[in-house]
Amino acid sequence: MDLKEMVGKEACKHIKSGMTVGLGTGSTAYHMVAEVGRMIKEENLTITGVTTSTQTLIQARELGIPLASIDEVDHIDITIDGADEVDPNFLGIKGGGAALLYEKIVATYSDKVIWIVDESKMVPQLGKFPLPVEVIPFGSQQIFNILEKRGYRPTFRKTNDGEFLHTDSGNYIIDLHLEAITDPHALAEELIHMTGVVEHGLFLDMTNFVIVGEKEGPKTLI
Ligand code: 5RP
C-alpha cells in the first residue's frame, strides 16, 4: 500500500462517532478524507467535518461527508492533516498546498492534532522545504524586498500559467528558500510581526502526535 494511503487510513482509527473532525489538505490528507467517506458509508460513522481548503471541501462534499464551517462548531475534537517537514521535536513546515492559513486556524481550535506523513517528511532540521509566507497582495513587493535583504531568498509562488497564485483567501504566497532554520520560534515571531504578513508555514508546538508511513508499516510518534 502507498505510504500516504497507509497513514491516512491509520489516522482514521482515532475518529469516533459524534466527533467534529478537522479535515486537512494535500495528497496525504486526501486518503484520510477518502477513508472518512468510506467509514460513513460502510460503518455508519457519524461525524461533522470542518475542511481546511476549497480542495478538501470539494472532495468531502463529493463523498457526502456532513460539514460545518469553522465558525459554526463549538469545538473540533481532532484534526488530521499532512505536513511538508517535521523535525524530531514535532516542529513542522506546512503550506506546500497553499492552505496554511485555514489549516493553522483549524488546528488552533482543535483539541487534538495528528499529522500524517510518509517517512521522507521526517527531517533532522527544518528548512530544506521552502517556507511559505502568506501575504496580502497590497504591498507584497515591499515585504518581498525586505525578505530578500534579510537573505531569505524569497520567490512569489506562481501558477503553471505564470500568474500569481491566490490562496483561498485571495492572498499571495512568498516561499523562503532558507535551506536550514536554526531557530524556528524566533523566525516565526519575526515573520508574523511584518505588516502585510497574514500567516507563515511554521507550525510550532501544534501537533499531539505524528503518524509516519514506513515500509514496515505505520509508526506513531508521541
Ligand atoms: C497544504 C499542506 C499539506 O498538508 C502539505 O503540503 C503536505 O501535502 P502532501 O500530503 O501532498 O505532501 O500543508 O497546505
Automatic annotation (TrEMBL):
The protein's Enzyme Commission number: 5.3.1.6
Functional pathway: Carbohydrate degradation; pentose phosphate pathway; D-ribose 5-phosphate from D-ribulose 5-phosphate (non-oxidative stage): step 1/1
Catalytic function, reaction form: aldehydo-D-ribose 5-phosphate = D-ribulose 5-phosphate
SUPFAM superfamilies assigned: D-ribose-5-phosphate isomerase (RpiA), lid domain, NagB/RpiA/CoA transferase-like
GO cellular component terms listed in the entry, alphabetical order: cytosol
Biological processes per GO annotation: D-ribose metabolic process; pentose-phosphate shunt, non-oxidative branch
Annotated keywords: Isomerase
Gene3D superfamilies (UniProt xref): 3.30.70.260, 3.40.50.1360
Pfam name, any one: Rib_5-P_isom_A
Positions with a binding annotation for substrate: 25-28, 81-84, 94-97, 121
Record keyword Repressor present: no
One MF term in the entry's GO annotations: ribose-5-phosphate isomerase activity
Catalytic residue positions: 103 (proton acceptor)
Annotated InterPro entries: NagB/RpiA_transferase-like, Ribose5P_isomerase_typA_subgr, Ribose5P_isomerase_type_A
Family, as annotated: Belongs to the ribose 5-phosphate isomerase family.
Assembly behavior: Homodimer.
Chain's role: Catalyzes the reversible conversion of ribose-5-phosphate to ribulose 5-phosphate.
Name used for this protein in its record: Ribose-5-phosphate isomerase A
Organism expressing this protein natively: Enterococcus canintestini
